[in-house]
Specification:
The protein is of the alpha+beta class. The protein folds into two domains: 102 residues, Helix Hairpins; 303 residues, BirA Bifunctional Protein, domain 2. It contains 13 helices and 19 strands. Strand 6 and strand 7 form a beta hairpin. The radius of gyration is 28 Å and the shape is elongated. 38% of the residues are buried. The model has no long low-confidence stretch (mean pLDDT 95).
C-alpha cells in the first residue's frame, strides 16, 4: 500500500508513476484520497477541540463546586454533556472517513519506478540482455514436450485430468526424479548464495494474502478453502514474506535472505489455446522462490543481484534465455520494477517465461507493517524483493525440447549428480 504521507508530499510524482502503470483514473483517485484526508484532518481537529473544551469545563466544574456555585457548576456539566454528544457524532464521522480512505487506498497499485518502460502490452517490454545471437532451430522431426512426455512415459496429463482435472499433471519415473533433481539443485544453489531455507505452510489466511498484495487484487485467481477461509498459495513469496508481518527489525539484521520450495496453485481462469498446452500453464506446479527483506537504500542494487543470480541458474542449465524489463502495463499490482526471464523453446518456436524478479519497494512492507529501526532509532519501512529461482514447468519443457535427440533426451551436466542419470530414453 502506498503511504498517505508520500501521496501528500509527492502528489504529482505519484500520479505520473501510476499513469505509467496505466492505472485508470489515477489523478482523480489520488485527488479523491487527498480530499478525503482533508476531511479526516478537519474531523480530527473538531474532535481535539471538543476534548480540549471538555477538559477546560471539567476543571471549571471542580472549582465551581469548591466555591459553592452549584448552579453554575450544573450549567457547566450540561455543556459537557452537549460536547460529549457532539464528540460521539464527530468520532463516528472520523472513523467512517478513515475507513473510507483505507478502503480506497488498498485498491491503488504500487507506483512503478521511473525506470519502468512506458507501454501497455507484453510486446512493449524492454529486452535487457540475452545469451542468444540467433534463435536455435531444432532438427527435423523434433516435437514439443507434450509429445516427448508421452513417448518416454515421464508425465501423464490424462491421468492428472482423471484424478483432479486439467492442469494437474502426474510425474512418473524419470519425470518425477527430474522434478526432485531440479528442486534440490535450485535449493542447493540458493543456500550456497546465503539464503536460509524455509519450509512454509502452503495455505495462508487473508491477512497474509493482503500483506503481499495478492488480496483483494488476485482473489479470483486463488483457490479458496471457504469453510476455513484459507487460500492455497500462488507462490512461496506469500508465506515467506509474511514471516515479517508486524515485525520491527534492527538495521543490522538487514538483509534477510530466505528461500523456499513449495507447490504453487493458480486457477488461471480464462486461460486456453495452444499457449497453455502441456506444461506451459498449470494449476499446480513446483517452484523455488528467493525473498529478501532489504534496506531501502540497497533494494535496487539487490534487485540486480537477484536477477543476475537467476541468470546464473539458466546458464548452468545451458538454456537460451533473455531478460525483459516489464513495461508499466504488464506489471503486477504490487511491483515497482520487474524483470522477467524467459527461455527459448525451439520446438514451440516461442519464448517461455520461467522467472519474475521484482522490487516492491515499501508497498508490501506498508501493508504488512514490516519495519526496521535505523541508527538514529527512527522506525522506517523495509523494502521487499522476491524472485522465482526457478519455476519448474517451463524449465522442464525447455530442457526436454531443446535437448531431444533421435535416441533420447540429454540432460545438462549440472543435473547428473541430482538425477542419477544423464539421458531420458
Amino acid at each position: 500500500m502506498l503511504s498517505l504521507l508520500v501521496i501528500r508530499e509527492q502528489t504529482e510524482e505519484i500520479i505520473s508513476r501510476l499513469e505509467r502503470k496505466n492505472f485508470k483514473d489515477a489523478r482523480a483517485i489520488i485527488l479523491q484520497v487527498l480530499e478525503m484526508d482533508n476531511s479526516r484532518k478537519a474531523f480530527q481537529k473538531q474532535n481535539d477541540d471538543n476534548l480540549s473544551q471538555q477538559n477546560v469545563l471539567a476543571n471549571k466544574i471542580g472549582d465551581l463546586f469548591k466555591a459553592g456555585n452549584k448552579d453554575e457548576a450544573a450549567g457547566a456539566k450540561a455543556e459537557v454533556a452537549t460536547l460529549k454528544a457532539a464528540a460521539e457524532e464527530i468520532k463516528t464521522k472520523l472513523t467512517q472517513t478513515e475507513t473510507d480512505i483505507y478502503a480506497l487506498m488498498v485498491t491503488i497499485p504500487n507506483a512503478p519506478s521511473m525506470a519502468v518502460p512506458i507501454g501497455k502490452t507484453p510486446e512493449e517490454n524492454e529486452v535487457v540482455s540475452t545469451n542468444v545471437k540467433e534463435l536455435p532451430v531444432m532438427a527435423e522431426g523434433s516435437v514439443p514436450h507434450w509429445e516427448l512426455t508421452t513417448k518416454y512415459d515421464i508425465i501423464d496429463f490424462e491421468l492428472g485430468n482423471k484424478i483432479a482435472g486439467a492442469g494437474f499433471p502426474v510425474y512418473k519415473g524419470k519425470g518425477a526424479r527430474l522434478q526432485r533433481a531440479l528442486i534440490n539443485f535450485f535449493l542447493d544453489k540458493a543456500t550456497a548464495a546465503g539464503y536460509t531455507e524455509i519450509q512454509p505452510p502452503i495455505l495462508i489466511n487473508s491477512d497474509s494474502g493482503f500483506g503481499t498484495g495478492n488480496l483483494p487484487d488476485k482473489e479470483g485467481q486463488m483457490y479458496h478453502c471457504q469453510i476455513d477461509d484459507l487460500f492455497l498459495i500462488p507462490t512461496a513469496e506469500v508465506p515467506v514474506t509474511n514471516i515479517y508481518r508486524d515485525v520491527i527489525l534492527k538495521e543490522s539484521d538487514l538483509p534477510q535472505k530466505l528461500t523456499a520450495y513449495t507447490p504453487c496453485f493458480r486457477r488461471e481462469a480464462g486461460s486456453y489455446g495452444k499457449d497453455v498446452r502441456g506444461l506451459n500453464r498449470l494449476h499446480q506446479f513446483d517452484k523455488v522462490e528467493i525473498v529478501q527483506i532489504q534496506h531501502p537504500n540497497k533494494s535496487y542494487e539487490t534487485l540486480e543481484t537477484m536477477r543476475d543470480y537467476v541468470i546464473g541458474l539458466l546458464t548452468e542449465l545451458e538454456l537460451p534465455y533473455r531478460v525483459l524489463k516489464l513495461c508499466g502495463g504488464d506489471m503486477s499490482f504490487s511491483s515497482a520494477l520487474t524483470y522477467d526471464l524467459e527461455v527459448y523453446s525451439a520446438a514451440q518456436q516461442r519464448w517461455l517465461e520461467v522467472s519474475s524478479v521484482s522490487n516492491f519497494e515499501s508497498f508490501q512492507a506498508n501493508r504488512m507493517k514490516c519495519r526496521f529501526k535505523d541508527a538514529d532509532g527512527k522506525t522506517k519501512l523495509v523494502h521487499t524483493l522476491n524472485g522465482s529461482a526457478l519455476a519448474l514447468p517451463r524449465i522442464v519443457a525447455a530442457l526436454l525440447e531443446n535437448n531431444q535427440t533421435p535416441t533420447g533426451i540429454n540432460l545438462p551436466k549440472v543435473l547428473h549428480k541430482y538425477t542419477g542419470f544423464e539421458t531420458i530414453e
